[in-house]
Amino acid sequence: MSNFVVQSQSQYDQLYKESIENPEKFWGDFAEQEFAWRKKWDKVLEYDLSKPYIKWFEGAKLNITENCIDRHLATKGNQTAIIFEPNNPNEEALHITYNELAKNVNKTANMLKANGAKKGDRICIYMPMTPELTYAVLACARIGAIHSVVFAGFSAKSLSDRINDATCNVVLTADGGYRGDKITPLKEITDEALQSCDSVEKVIVLNRTNSKIAMEYGRDVWWQDEFAKASDECPAEVMDAEDMLFILYTSGSTGKPKGMVHTCGGYMVYTNYSFRNVFQYEEGDIYWCTADIGWITGHSYIVYGPLSAGATTVMFEGVPSYPDMGRFWQVVEKHKVNIFYTAPTAIRSLATCDISLVNQYDLSSLKTLGTVGEPINQEAWDWYNNHIGKGNCPIVDTWWQTETGGIMITSIAGVTRDIPTYATLPLPGIQPCLMDENGNELSEGEQEGRLCIKYPWPSMARTIYGNHQRFAETYYNTFPGKYFTGDGAKRDSNGNYRITGRVDDIVIVSGHNLGTAEIENAINEHSNVAESAVVGYPHDIKGNSIYAYVTLKNNVGSETINDEIKDLVSKTLGPICKPEKIQITSGLPKTRSGKIMRRILRKVAANEMDNLGDISTLLNPECVEEVIKGRV
Ligand code: WTA
Questions:
Q1: How does 415-431 read in b/e, with b if 16+ C-beta sit within 10 Å?
Q2: Which protein residue has the closest C-alpha to ligand 1 atom 10?
Q3: What global pTM score does this model have?
């Protein structure tokens, strides 16, 4: 057992202290002991957060796939790397060994090369949760191409925006993707997206659903044909530690999503470190993270963290509600899952169902539970603890972000204490702090403020693809010298953190980050819409939901305007962004300088009308009355 995997509270205290006193030694020792490098670094860390300028393991050479695959083959070649559980429970599950993973990734890598992909190219992956998605991600890493995975629930417009932003030359997709009893027409959506993407030369299409699709001659090829032709040997490209590994888009406060850039060395080191510590993975454990690889959770804790640790990771193609709301528990029983990691929104929706859907399954294999993506409320925590963990499983409430690359604040399963609704303590190596609105750091002890991280860690995002200026402005200018998370948090007198939610214009709906500005832009495209303001409001299952206030040109709209707006948002951005409530109003409250007072609209949407604050300074205080009366 590595001495970097914490086994007791006292070891945590000791390691935390060492990690703060000498971070370079801490990370340098861990990186040296635990990975296969082609060449060692010249320097562990160089940084200047005012630029920001961040380099970890500069001068080192590696390929992350050699760490996720090749180095395991001598001892674990026949161990299962991936258990694939298909959408349809009657379709056979696959157990893919590390030997098979090696061959399949190499074949996929050669398939990519044969279709024009090379080191440094950006490859868009728009695929369902099949093993080929994991092969594709690792194949890109194998040849030094930069993957940009776009969640297969996004619309054609969102897909084309992302392809264009990163100027991808190859797109990997499937004819369709199974989701419960539906099929998402991925190739059709891709075709629509590519009408406005000039950079794309090749589209490789996996046949998953036998859907009838169009293939464009010269551009589109079938995955299965190309894969069959490819050799199963492919040398790993030797990468610099600071070369880009991937781009992953996340919502921003302005309309445009941000392409967060992660690099090879630091990301590998930290996802491995956090995976092994937080979940206390032991040889032979079956680990299941229910996220989609289209999100950071899937990147770090389905693919890179578990595979670099030589773990067995479950990939589930389907949805929790198909064929019924007992599916998660059926899969836990079927594959004897030991570690289960999911989102609070899933727990809340499953907790509303008849408990027989849980109790008919044997969940005794479970030893650790986890949550991610949003705060978990006490009721959901209790249900998870009582009905799934049967009071015997630690629950790790893991706080982190696309930008942080890996889990930052969490309990360590069975080692440090978990406290319901608290993410609790930073992992060794992570230095959080709370800031007040004037930019002062709040001294230790019980405090509430804006959550920042005041020292670099290996998997921090390095930039926003193509826009370093925006990266600096979004994360490093608010509190100079510190990384600003955009979240608010409380800290108790023992140093435990409780995340209170976003303090910017991002709303977390069912665990998905949605930018309100992006949704407003989509709504404003409607020909009758003059203006809109989008806010989040508390929702029992989704955590938050979207409330849109809309004014119409000349106050004229049709009877179906609400549905039209919902459809438009769904079509433009994807169904997850659809507003739950729409209120048509003749005006929006504004400051004298013309800025929409979202603070008031948030309060009205949340039904907190008794403390709207001072509205007398508004340009149009009379419209507040109308907004309150018209609340839906
Ligand atoms: C929120 C997901 C409370 C938070 C890994 C953060 C959480 C945003 C938690 C990042 C948690 C994530 N408790 N809030 N355990 N985990 N969040 O980029 O607001 O999709 O800033 O990364 O989710 O979402 P993202």
A1: bbebbbebbbbbbbbbb
A2: 401
A3: 0.95
